[in-house]
Amino acid sequence: MERLTVPLADRSYEIIIGAGCLADAGTLCREAGLRGRVAVVTNPTVAKLYYEPVLRSLSSAGYDVLRIELPDGEEYKTLESITTIYTELIQNSFDRGCFLLALGGGVIGDMTGFAAATFLRGVPFVQIPTTLLAQVDSSVGGKTGVNHPLGKNLIGAFYQPRLVISDVDTLITLERRDFISGLAEVIKYGVVLDADFFSYLRLQSENILLRKREVLVTLIRRCCRLKADVVSQDEQESGVRAVLNYGHTLGHAVETLAGYDRYRHGEAVAIGMVQAAAISESYGHADHGTTEQIIQLIRSLGLPVELPPFTSEEYVSLLLRDKKVREKGLTFVCNKGVGGYIFAQVSDVSSLLTRCGQGGTNGGK
User: How much is the pTM?
Assistant: First the structure.
């Protein structure tokens, strides 16, 4: 097992990365100082595979465990699901001495974290991410929340976990489409934060798709280190942390317009990154040809690149609801070549669609 620390003073926590570390969940929770009863929040797909080993580990460490099972899918990332968690906790007499444990992907992690942040005004929680997207991104940094019919992740809180346990063996059972979806967030780190990592991804694309264990560990470790560094500088996204939204501005709009059942989160982010790269090139922040390099990597890892043909008015409506919209307009994350970034303040969001050559109606690159 490898251990990384997210340094946030008295709220610092460890990320455990390894193979087979699910079996150590109970011991690791004890080491993190967690006491009392634990509610494991999961979904049917993950529960069939991993609930029993996690239960055995927690029980052998002396924990009294409650299982809370939610439906599987982004469409269930709602306040209704949060209410389900609250109801189970209240009916089973959970108190402030308890903690929650998220066993699943990003949807489960985000909802469990938000429930923990708000149940009895805050109880601890642990992340055990079982998807690549969650292991490299959403389980780290304390962003929690749910979707609203008018936009993605508009309701939530910054609330840090007490521990993250990433077992790469859970990625072996992941459906191919879900695994590939997670690679979008991996690519993101290379594009805006680490040119050497971008090159590594290009060289290792075949081994990544083969899910070679040592390559997976390298991916997760590097992404988590990069994110931990950013989060330690800017926990609540008032500045530099916004770089982690690269590709997400248009990506979230794609998810909302197309419906969460059509695109996985990572697929939408991949599409958003292509548009962000084209926009960055149009601003002069990247040399001609940079966008094509990014497109080639995205395609080589099996991700989509084409913007769905909704109208510009539909895209603009969603962009104006983005969380990054302030009085001066939208803060848009541009890549500065490969391995760097710059923020653009965009007062006319419709101009973004023109800059990426889409107009919102003619497909994509």
Answer: 0.89
Which residues, including other chains, have CB under 8 Å from residue 67's CB and lie 6 or more apart? 39, 40, 42, 47, 51, 55
Alpha helix positions (H), 143-302: 176-193, 195-203, 205-209, 213-233, 248-258, 265-283, 290-300
Active site residue 121: yes
Q: Same domain, yes or no, for 136 and 225?
A: no
Residue at which a domain ends, from 152, 171, 190? 171
Count of other CB atoms within 10 angstroms of residue 136: 27
Residue of 77, 152, 188, 248 with catalytic role: 248
Q: Which domain holds residue 303?
A: 176-355
- Please check whether residue 270 is in contact with residue 184, taking contact to mean a CB–CB distance below 8 angstroms: yes
248 annotated active-site: yes
**Rounded distance between C-alpha atoms, residue 191 and residue 199, angstroms:** 10
Tally of structural domains, the chain? 2
Which pairing describes strands 163-167 and 13-18: parallel, antiparallel, or unpaired? parallel
Do residues 104 and 138 lie in contact, with contact meaning Cβ atoms separated by under 8 Å?
Answer: no
Which residue, 131, 151, 171, sits at the end of a domain?
A: 171
Q: Which of 121, 288, 326, 328 is catalytic?
A: 121
DSSP one-letter code for 306: P
Each residue of 78-124: pLDDT tens digit? 999 999 999 999 999 999 999 999 999 999 999 999 999 999 999 99
